[in-house]
Structure formats: C-alpha cells, structure tokens
Predict the 3D structure of the following.
Amino acid sequence: MCGIIGYIGKETAVPILIEGLKKLEYRGYDSAGVAVLQDGKFEVRRAVGKLQNLEALLRSETLTGKIGVGHVRWATHGRPSEENAHPHRAGSIVLVHNGIIENYVALKKDLAAQGRVFQSETDTEVIAHLIDSIAQKGLALEEAVREAAKHLEGAYAIAVIDERDPDVVVGARKGSPLVVGLGLGEFFLASDIPAILHRTRDVLFLNDDEMAILTPEGVRITDLKGTELTREVTRVMWNPVMAEKGGYRHFMLKEIYEQPRAIMDTIRGRFSQDTGVIHLEEIGPAYDRLKTAKKIFIVACGTSWHAGLVGKYMFEELASITTEVDIASEFRYRSPLVGKDDLFIAITQSGETADTLAAMREAKKRGATVIAICNVVGSTVSREADGVIYTHAGPEIGVASTKAFTAQLTALYLFGLFFGSLRGALSTDSVKKRLVDLVHVPTLVERCLEANEHIEQIAKHYFKANDFLYLGRGPNFPIALEGALKLKEISYIHAEGYPAGEMKHGPIALIDEKMPVVVLAGKNGVYDKILANIEEVKARGGIVIAIMTEGDAEIAKRVTHSISIPATNQLLMPILMSIPLQLLAYHIAVLLGADVDQPRNLAKSVTVE
Ligand code: AGP
C-alpha cells in the first residue's frame, strides 16, 4: 500500500505535496519522492527511507513548479532503493502509483522489445513506459492514460503529468483508492482524504475504471471510454487526527477493516483459477529444495506464532508433510534437530523480531532451506532468507496485529496449496477447488465485519470481567490463543486460549458465572465435540459467547451470546474466526479507555531479546 498525491494550481507545488505526503506516510515509508514541472522541464527528487530524508534533500533546493506529483512507498515489487522509488519517468511522462499490476512482466517484455530501457524493478515504471509509448503516437496525456489503462491488469491508482503539457494532471484508478480535491483555483489527487485536508474539505471520489482530468480551470471525470461523468462533491468534516486514521477512531480498527483488501492484495496475481497453477516465484532459489524437503519447521513469535500453528494444520492436510511449530525464543536455545533436508519457515510481520531472526540464522547454520513469510520488503529477515513470500497487508501501525495476521494465514494457505501440488499430494482439481474457496475469503471477511455493532453490544456486557477463557479445536485452537492475546494485549484483562478438549484436564475448574468463555464453534470436523464442551461450561453456570457458522440454530439456542460467520472450508475458517475476536477485544479495550494503538509495555516490533 503506498500513498500518492497530485497537485495543479497557483502555488509552488513542493510544499503542498510534502505536507500531503506527511499525512500519507502511514501508508508506506520505504521511500518518498516528488516531481514537478517547471520551465517546461521535470525536476524529480527521490530518497530512500522516511519522508524526512526527502525533506532534507529538498532543503537545499528551490523548486518553483506549480504542478507536480508525490509518493510514499510501501515496497511490493523491488526492494526499497532510489531506483525503485517513485515518481517514475519514461520519456515525457512522470507518474506515481499505488497498487499491484499483475501483468507487468508481460507488458515489460513487450516494451523492452520496442527498445525501451528500464531503470527499476517496479511494475510502476512499466506503466510510465506504456503511457509514454502511446503518447508518442501524438496522443494528449488524457487519451494516452485512457488507452494505457485498458492494458493494465491488477490494481492501480495513478497520478500522471506530461512534460509536453504543464496544464494537466491526470488520475485513474482501479482497485486502489483515489480522491479528487477541489480547492480555490487548485486541484488535487490523493490516495485518501488526509493528504489534502490542509488545502480543501471538498472532495469527490473516483470509482474503478474512472479518470480525473485536472486543469487550472477545473476537474473533469470520465470513464475509460471518455464519457464525461457527473459526481457529487462531498464536504469532509473530519478533524485532522481522525483524518490520518481514515475516519476511524484508532489505527487498529482501520486495519481490522482493511483485511478484505489486505487478503486480496496478498493473493492477487499469485495463481490462475483456470489452470490451478500457483505463482510464488519470489521463493527464488529455495524452490528447488522444496520438492525434497522431509519436514517443515515453522518458527515465530506472538501472533505470528499463532499463524504458524494454523499453518501446521494446512501443510499436514494439503502437502502431507510433517510440520513442527516452535516459538522462536525456545527454538533458538534448544538443540533443534533441523538440517539440510528440512524447510524452515520464519513468519514475521515486521521482519525484525530478534528471536525469530536468531532462530532463522540458527536453522541456516544447520543447513536448512529458509523461507520467510513477511510483511516488510527489505526487512532483515526477508533479506537473509533463501526465499520470501510477502504478505501485502500494507503498513500495520496498531501494535496489536490484525490484517498482517490474516494475511499470514492467507499466505500459508496459498503456500500449502503450492507445496501440496509440487509434492503431488494435491491434484489440480483439488487445488482449483480450494482456490475457489480462497477467492471468496475477502467477501466473507466483509460479511464478518457486519457483526461489528452486535459485537460492541456484547462487549458492553463483559468489559469489566477479570478473566476470559477462549476455547477452540483443530485449526481453530490457535485462533483461541490469538483471541486471548488480542484481548490481553490491548485491554490488560487476563485471558487464556485453550484446546477445548483440554477443559476436563484443568481449566473447567475455572468456570463460574463471572468468567466469559468464548467458544469457536464453527461447523467443522470436530463440531459435535465443541458442542459437548459448550454443555460442560453451561452445566457449571458458565457464560458462553459462541462464534458459530451463520444459521446454526443448534448453537444459538444453547449459548448466552452468538456471533455468526459465513461457512467456508475448515482451513480457511481461522481467518473468519479471527475477525469477531479482533472486534471483541477492540471494543472491550475502548470501553475500558485503554490506549488501543499503543498498549502499555508493548512495541510494534520486538527487535531485542
Ligand atoms: C501481536 O498482536 C503482537 N503485537 C506480537 O505478539 C507480535 O505478533 C510479535 O511480536 C511478532 O511480531 P512479528 O510478526 O513482527 O515478528
């Protein structure tokens, strides 16, 4: 996820672009850049790392152009570097982009065959060359962008300027957000509202396959055929602080709601439903050693460790390979029996967790093939692994991990299908069927989010409880652990996750009328057993909050509260089960007045032991 901004007006563009990028930096901070058009020439400035590095670069400059574009990058294709930083230029075109172009490899091949030379590894530069190659046939910028957009597959929000015409900025979007700002004699494009609130509160929203043409005279909206569209102007009443969170009260809530997009971006371009082929080229040289791997070790910390526990169920079912899951701080100090015939998977959102990094180095030293499932391109773990499967969840600001977690589960499922197919454990038809289940997940997550108000009401009953117990079985057991962690880390209420079958071996002694028991009771292979566990809790006067498959009247009539999730296959159910547990923890923490985004004693990335 990146942040883009475009400006045309009477003021010097750079300060306005920089001010806007400051409000977009939460969307990406691998690099930043601006480009302005002045005296008929482009001036492009880019810097790796945080926006402050670009500001330092600009301090010694006086760029006077009154039209320009700006970008903060969250790397998806190509590591954080100046060559890969936006804006990207090709001929008379400069542009910035947020999204992932799925067919960029094919487009790049065709453009290179026309003699075009590329400076970066990015999909974005391909768009710039594509537009320039069309513009050079004598088309104005608007027509060139319109024609190019028809060839793009995947997601994009772009802001484009043309050295041939200093009086126009063109925006286009598909699958990534783009708003248009209407100021006094000045007009804006931006990834979201915070970037332009300092200049105007009047915005209009572009839909997919629409374009905005900004000139000093005003804004035109068209579809990809060039048909003019009318669009209502919205007056934004947010205060600036709310604006950075996209109108959400906390980053955590915003990121909970970003999960459909995060999952979509994590699967986008990685498989063909027609052929059942899964593309995980970024695994790189590790690919050759996958076929002969005898065992998998998954190692991680915290929420990422919970993802690994679900991964065990996925790999053993989909790829029929023994999978061991370890907490990194334990693995690194054991004498782990890991070696050259093994595959070691490090799961880490940040890519900087000290224990996970140390465990991975230990496994590498012992000869294992190491793959990272990571959310940060260019992070230490991703650079030291033999191969990487990136989750494209975008920057996760809230300390409590939400969208990165469900993106990890998504990546693990995809990898399980890939691995099962590679090892002959899954037929092509079986992979295709499971891919159908996967492509429905973003929509099913949207439906889970619809229970938000209902969950908030349940939270009001129990936010003063001293203890919670979370119970699950099978692939949902790790989600019981995750639900308990979410609650305890942001509300400071003691909570435990437990395998439901273990109730009679101890935790049942805890049951009383004060302790809410959250039971993950989705319809899966152990449903009858979980039903029995619910009765065990009720028989002792316990309070049961059940997360159940929608329409399950049997559960609904037996429990104190029920929260529904849509049906899906049992390996994908953990993703859906996570959503209500995230919302329950969130609302309880808010009711307690806790510091949701920055809970006490915690850090977003634990880079020390
Ligand atoms: C999860 O909500 C916590 N913030 C924490 O457990 C986190 O998952 C853990 O520190 C691992 O971080 P990583 O994924 O960046 O390695």
